[in-house]
Amino acid sequence: MSLFSGLSRPMKAAGLALVGVAVIAAVIGGITLTSGGGDSDTATPPGTTPTTSDGATPPSSEPQGTPPASSPPASSAPPSSAPASSAPPASQPGQTGKPGPGQPGGDQQAAHKWVTVRVYNNSLIQGLAERAANDFRASGWNVTEVGPHQGKLPKSAAYYRPGTDEEAAAKALALEFGIEAQPRFEGIQNAAAGVIVILTKDYDENDKSGGS
């Protein structure tokens, strides 16, 4: 005896329709369960680390950390290789670039030529004192007197009073004309100021003017 025996034809049709709906609902539910269960087995919730069947954590293909960005070195201007410019020292008053009197390389003779010079002949050579005086004047010396000298001296010399301007002047003149420079001797000790040049025949032999 069937489930629908004893029912009228309309009721049988309605019962078959309900059964069909139930079957379709059951099929849909089974499909849903099947697909949902598969998803729950493979999906990983956010924020959790997946594990293998034995409990080990699989290695991650993603880097564990991002290294900090290296900051570029602070730029620094290279030290300048150009030497610091320096202004030349200002010239001092009186500096002309040439050595002055008394300085190394300067005309030391010219520094003393203002001292008066008197020239005397102590030889038998006529005009020797005048010729020597002309030589001295040509070189810029201040010759104020020419004359004879009584007595006898061994060599031509320029005589001076030690510690005065005459000393430096006599030495400069003697060096220039090849004679000696000596302190005044007793016979001319009290003579007037200035260098006293007394000539003998040796000046004629060394005469720079070339005269005879």
Automatic annotation (TrEMBL):
Domain of life of the source: Bacteria
Name this polypeptide is given: Glycoprotein
A matching Pfam family: LytR_C
The organism of origin for this protein: Amycolatopsis thailandensis
Region (Disordered): 33-110
Biased composition (Low complexity): 40-59, 72-96
Alphabetical list of InterPro entries matching this protein: LytR/CpsA/Psr_C
Domain LytR/CpsA/Psr regulator C-terminal residues, every copy: 115-203
